[in-house]
Predict the structure.
Amino acid sequence: MSKLAIVTGASTGIGHATAHTLLRDGFDVISLARRRCDVPGVVSLQADLTEPLAADVRTTLLDTCKDRQQIAIVHSAGWLAGDSAQSISLEALDRAFAVNVTAPAMLNALLIPHLPVSSSIVFVSSTLGTKAVPGALSYAVSKHAVDGLMQAPCQDLAGSGVHTACVAPGFTNTQMLRDHVGNDPQILAGIASGVTFNRLIEPAEIAATIAFCIDNPVINGAIIHANLGQIER
């Protein structure tokens, strides 16, 4: 019997770092993403999280869950658009909810019946799950929903031995953030100046926080703010 981690969005960013960390910690790791995860030893299943999982992907996931002593589901995939209250489109809002909310909810529904005692469901949210900044409306709204999506199964799974947690990263050095600011080093430096450590968070730091949540069921129904201390102005 062994440990299994299913990580969405493991081809890049926080998901990629999490796959590496959990593999090192003795988990078999499955990546669910549009692109292949290049971490040696990770099994990559191709999936577009805006669509229902293909039948062969569902079958592989369920077969791999058999006879496990511990399963961790890590919802790391995310989608960020540069929209606002004035520019929001139905397409952007639908896509944000499809990736950030609907896909995790449906993956949970598929896998929860197969989770043994000591398993966990960890969501990667954001500081924008509890507040907002200009120019990220659909992302902020969907991440607010993620916090609820974590707390609801905490209640639904009471007594099962399965715990849930939400890690809310601050500004993390990922391609998604760099793309969002147009890879502008001055903007990135300005963002870093708003953190008490005057730097961006590294994905490996968030991965370590996720691993901590997986191994500590006392973190159940809880949001962990992993942001290096944001300076409030």
Summary: The radius of gyration is 17 Å. The longest helix spans residues 90-111.
